[in-house]
Specification:
By secondary structure, the chain is an all-alpha fold. 66% of the residues lie in helices and 0% in strands. The chain is built from nine helices and no strands. Helix 1 packs antiparallel against helix 2 (24-44) and helix 1 packs across helix 5. The longest helix has 21 residues, at 24-44. It starts with a helix and ends in a 10-residue tail after the last helix.
Length: 177
């Protein structure tokens, strides 16, 4: 789920922190980083793992990334950006409902195995995911939020897109609910 992860992460963090200068590029990348890390390995080694949620979907990965950022960077813009990246990874775990897969979420503390999907082939797994209406609801919600943010930030104007590409910040006001 691509739009769900990015849209929900950006929406939640913008509302929670209300920082108009935050670099949303790093947050968005962090929101999909777990899938970027795990998906190729899960597909290639499906017969061994029977899942595409591996190390990148573990608390260990998210915490190790956050600790690395805090240890290896000093205060300043790069640290703020990289903390957003690590925060995106943490949100990804929540948005995937990883509490339902404790072996993966708490890997390696519950053992070296990952929670299996229950599908013998990657194709049957993808068919199940694609036919799940909740997946589509999440994607639509994320896409609707991102389109709304695009319009509020006036990213249809080249100058606004250029600013976003350079800084990662958008000029859209952060509404109170």
């Amino acid at each position: 789920m691509f739009f769900w992860h990015i849209g929900a992460s950006v929406g939640f963090i913008r509302y929670a922190f209300r920082d108009p200068h935050m670099d949303l590029r790093f947050l968005a990348f962090g929101a999909v980083l777990s899938d970027i890390v795990d998906l190729p390995v899960g597909i290639l080694f499906w017969s061994s793992y029977e899942t595409d949620k591996l190390v990148g979907h573990s608390t260990m990965f998210a915490v190790a990334l956050m600790v690395a950022v805090l240890v290896l960077t000093r205060r300043g813009p790069w640290r703020r950006r990289l903390i957003l990246l690590a925060t995106g990874v943490l949100l990804h775990l929540a948005l995937d409902g990883m509490w339902q897969s404790p072996e993966t979420l708490w890997w390696p503390f519950f053992g070296w195995e990952f929670t299996r999907s229950g599908f013998a082939t990657y194709g049957t797994y993808v068919s199940e995911v694609v036919s799940n209406p909740w997946v589509w609801v999440g994607e639509i919600v994320g896409l609707v939020y991102l389109v709304g943010l695009w319009k509020k930030a006036d990213l249809s104007q080249a100058s606004m897109r250029k600013t976003f590409m350079r800084t990662g910040a958008v000029s859209a006001p952060i509404d109170r609910v």
